[in-house]
Structure formats: C-alpha cells, structure tokens
Design a protein that fits this description.
Elements (H helix, E strand, L loop, with lengths): L22 E4 L9 E5 L5 E3 L10 E3 L2 E2 L23 H5 E5 L2 H9 L9 E3 L9 H5 L2 H10 L4 E5 L8 H8 L4 E6 L5 H7 L6 H13 L4 E8 L7 H13 L5 E5 L6 H12 L4 H7 L8 H18 L46
C-alpha cells in the first residue's frame, strides 16, 4: 500500500505520514470482526476543500479514512484507491485511523496562520462510525475546538454522537455548533441492503429527537434520495413526515450522485438487487456523476413543499445553528397544525445551517 501517498491530492508531493508510522491491528470482537485498522500518526489534520467543490465550507477534519457503514453509494470510496486499497470491500473493512488527530488539531488551531474558520466533520467519511467507539478521537477533537471557540459542524449517520452530548452542549455555549443527521429514506428493506453498516433510520431519528429535547438544534440531510427506489411521492412524504416528527429543525434533500469509485460499486449492487433498473440508471447518469438538473429540482421542490406543510421548512444557509427547536407538528399536510396558521417554518424561528 502506498502509505507515503496518503494526501488529499494524490499527485501532491507531501505525505501525511510515513511508512514507519503505520500499525495494523484487528480485533476479534463482534462489532469489529472482519475489519482491519491501520493506525497512523498524521502530519496534518485540517484540510482545505478543493476550490471546485460544491461544498459550502472550506475546511474539514477527517480522523478516519474508509468507513464501516459500508454505504454502497459513498462518494469517498475513490480516496481508498490513493493507497492502492480496494474501493469496494476494502473501503468498508480497511479503516485508516489518525490516532494523533486531537493533539494535532490543537497544534494547528494554535498556529498564528489559523483564522478560526468554520470546520466541517463527517463530510468525507463518518467520524462516528464504529471505529470511534474504540479509538475515541472525537472527544479530544471537540475539546480542542471548544478551547479555541472555533465554530464547527458534524454530519453523521452514527448514534455514537450521543456519547459526546455533554461536550457538544459545552461547545455550543461558546461557539457555533451545527449538527446534522443523514436520513435519506425510512424504508427498512432498502436500508438493510444499501447502508448495511449503519444504525437504522429510526435510530438516527431518535438521535435527532434526543438532541432537540436537550435544546441542541439538529437538521436532517435527506441524502441520498435514490432514483426509482426512494423517490416516489408516498416515499418522500413518509420520510419527511418522520423527519418532522423527530423534531428536526430543517430538512435538506440531496439526490444520489455517483462519482468514479462509488459508481462502479453501486452499479454492481444495483445489478444484483434491482437488475431491471440498470438500464434506467445508465440513461439517467449518462451525463456524468449527477442526476439531470430537472430531476434534482423536482425532488427538491417536492421535499420543500412537504417540509413546509409539516412545519419544518428547508435549511437556510447562514441561519442560526443554536436554536430552541419547535414542537414537532402532528397534523397531516393540508391540515392546520397545533398552533394554527402560525405553525409554518417562518413562525418556527431560524433553521439550522446544513452541511451540504
């Protein structure tokens, strides 16, 4: 494996760590069986997002590479090829752990060159995947950001986030903290095959409910909406309704995109589980990694209309990240909510900044 080439830009000259720094471990416990961990001491932890990226943030921290969530569509799969690791099963089971991430972050935040910009986490692979239960890197990372009052946000599918609830509450007292949970659909059959290593959608929505109950606003990234599998009007309605009832401050849809590395793995999965859809996907994604613009706009419009009807509304970039969450509406779309005409998204107050 090309450990010396572990850089955000594989053509770049500077490695993040050297070969001698790698320790490979396996653990014979049920939650880690079949997973290999490569422990490294990174040379850098705060990463600049490429200028061409569509992401609405500039800096990220990623304590792990590879992800045991094993989502078949994960766009980060290609990064494993930079190490000569497989982007399929290898991505799911060969996890790189930057064991010195907290101490390194403290050092980089203390640099006179650092200006205190917002740092996003969980936007490449999940920082609360199963490995975090053993390595416990996030508490030190959150503490380092809190010490500097550095704003940050976390996107996750992991229920392990609740372990750090007290740290997050403390951070939110002195800086801007944004939390988003990813729930693209509520279909349990689809979940078991397409996101086999993740907590169920219902458990993720329980995380949202717990956060909002203690006063930490939490938005939901409804991602991915999977064409022909989770995008029917009734499926969208069911998902948005469940998100609203969890007390989420916002819902933001994101249609499945298939970048190189993920595309091949997803299409192989599609051929095994839904072979009748292969040709439709080949047509839909013939133009590249993204679904046609008309389709993305259609899904966004439908989800925003449902969100508005259920009283949560879409996320608005730049809105407050620390809010008192509204009570989850109980009425069906088209019926007055418990607060009558004033129960819409504007009356609910500002919504949380979303990550994507």
């Amino acid at each position: 494996m090309r450990w010396d080439n572990l850089t955000d830009d594989p053509s770049g000259p500077a490695a993040l760590f050297g070969t001698g720094a790698v320790v490979t471990r396996t653990f014979d416990t049920p939650e880690f069986r079949g997973i290999t961990f490569h422990e490294v001491r990174a040379r850098s932890i705060v990463n600049r997002v490429p200028g061409a990226s569509r992401m609405p943030f500039e800096w990220t921290v990623n304590p792990y590479r590879g992800c045991s969530h094993a989502c078949v569509y994960c766009f980060a799969r290609r990064t494993h090829s930079y190490l000569d690791l497989d982007t399929g099963l290898g991505f799911d089971s060969q996890i790189v752990v930057k064991t010195n991430a907290p101490e390194l972050l403290r050092r980089e935040l203390a640099s006179p060159r650092w200006t205190g910009a917002h740092i996003a986490m969980g936007t490449n692979v999940d920082c609360y995947q199963r490995a975090e239960g053993r390595y416990r890197l996030m508490p030190g990372i959150i503490e380092a950001l809190t010490e500097r009052a550095n704003p940050f946000s976390i996107l996750t599918k992991g229920t392990l986030l609740l372990r750090d609830l007290d740290l997050l509450r403390r951070a939110a007292e002195i800086t801007e903290v944004g939390i988003s949970v990813s729930v693209g659909f509520t279909d349990t059959g689809l979940w078991r095959t397409v996101e086999p290593g993740t907590p169920s959608p219902a458990r993720r929505l329980d995380v949202v409910r717990t956060l909002t109950d203690v006063g930490i606003g939490c938005g939901v990234l409804m991602a991915p909406v999977i064409p022909f599998l989770s995008d029917s009007p009734e499926q969208l309605r069911t998902t948005v309704r469940a998100i609203a009832r969890s007390g989420a401050t916002s819902v933001t849809p994101l249609v499945l995109h298939l970048r190189p590395g993920a595309r091949e793995w997803f299409m192989a999965w599609l051929g095994r589980h839904h072979p009748h859809l292969v040709e439709r996907y080949e047509r839909m994604y013939a133009g590249g990694s993204y679904a046609p613009t008309w389709y993305q706009r259609q899904i966004t419009r439908q989800v925003h209309e449902l969100a508005d009807a259920y009283g949560i509304g879409p996320a608005r970039r730049g809105a407050a990240r620390r809010i008192t969450p509204p009570q989850p509406p109980e009425a069906e779309p088209g019926q007055p909510g418990p607060q009558g005409a004033d129960s819409g998204p504007e009356a609910a107050g500002p919504t949380q900044l979303t990550l994507l």
